[in-house]
Amino acid sequence: MSPDTVIEIHRLTKRFGDRVAVNDLSFSIHRGEVFAFLGPNGSGKSTTIRMLCGILTPTSGEGRVLGFDIAREGERIKEHIGYMSQRFALYEDLTVRENLEFYAGVYQVPRAERRARLDELIAMAGLVSRERQLAGQLSGGWKQRLALGCAIVHRPQLLFLDEPTAGVDPVSRRSFWTMIYGLARGGVTIFVTTHYLDEAEYADRVAMIHGGVLRVLATPAELKRTALRGRLLNLTCDEPRRALPLLECAPGVREVALYGTALHVLIDSERQSPEGLRRFLSAAGVTVRDVTDIEPTLEDVFISLIGAPAGEQAV
Question: What is the pLDDT of residue 3?
Answer without folding.
Answer: 77
